[in-house]
Give the backbone structure.
Amino acid sequence: MTEFEQRRRAAAEQLAAKKVDALLVSSLANVRYLTGYAGSNGLVLITPSEEHFFTDPRYGSEAAANLSCKVHVCKGELIAAAAGIIRRKKFKKIGFEPAWLRMDRYAQLQDALPAGAALEPVANLIEELRAVKSPDEIAKIRRSVRVNSEAFARTMNRVRPGVREHQIAAELDFQMRMLGAEKTAFDTIVAAGPRSALPHAHPTSHAIGDKELVLIDMGAVVDGYSSDMTRVAHIGTPPRRIRELYKAVSEAQLAAIDSIRAGVPAARVDATARKVLKGFHLDKQFVHSTGHGLGLEIHEAPKIGKKEKMKLQAGMVITVEPGAYVNGFAGIRIEDTVLVTENGCQVITQTPKKLFIL
């Protein structure tokens, strides 16, 4: 049995507990997780005894050659074809992904169901399976991390006063692609000077000035899997205030990483980072969660936040990224991709964890 078949069976085994006869999977990330299909138009119908994949003629031959479930190549709407299977099998309760099924498709599916059948929202079933990565998935994330780190190293050799934020971002993206990335995992962040205090700043035409801080947040997608890293650099010798800010965030990040192991609630990791920053009187300048899972998507379960009840499990891959943002001055964020293990964790990110001085 292939890994994809094992994943589909694991999903099918949960249908009874969710009180549904079948599950219609419409999230493309979930479809890829279950089948390996990476196209732009696909649905999967999971039943207790079999699985059906639906796509259009653009992907038909590729799907038929590579997918081990029943493949349906549809000239019309995929929802209509899925509804036909549901009618033929006489299913009464059909689960769907409420976060991913568009309202027009929901209405179309509802109208096509036989009398007495009903749609039931089933949230996060596949996402919870995806939270713990297989060895093959971890290997893909490691390759993504390597591409990310090498692209950063190549680009930093070209950063100097006068280079614009959007030029640095373009070079990072170019290097990731040259090194084998399918795409960037998200819009690359490059923010200099006071703009670094904006956690998700978009690169602008601002020219990097002498004695300015530069924050870079970047991620690559390799074989479908994401990486995520944030590093900061300073043009010239950093002033004392910047060094102190970096020291505080670095200690918070290291403490959070040290708290990670299987069985630890995700909220405890977040609390650990916040406690350290509070000791530096910077807790109010930390305005986002400490991290998140990643994989086929850049943000996956678990969230490493204040109220997250999920306990970490060995095989989860998460980011650890505390930050402190002082409006009008500068922001520091240090982020690594981390693999949770039974007795601790492993930092996968290879780029040195330091304040780069250019």
Q: What stands out?
A: The chain has two domains: 3-130, 135-357. DSSP finds ten helices and 20 strands in the chain. The first helix runs from residue 3 to 12.
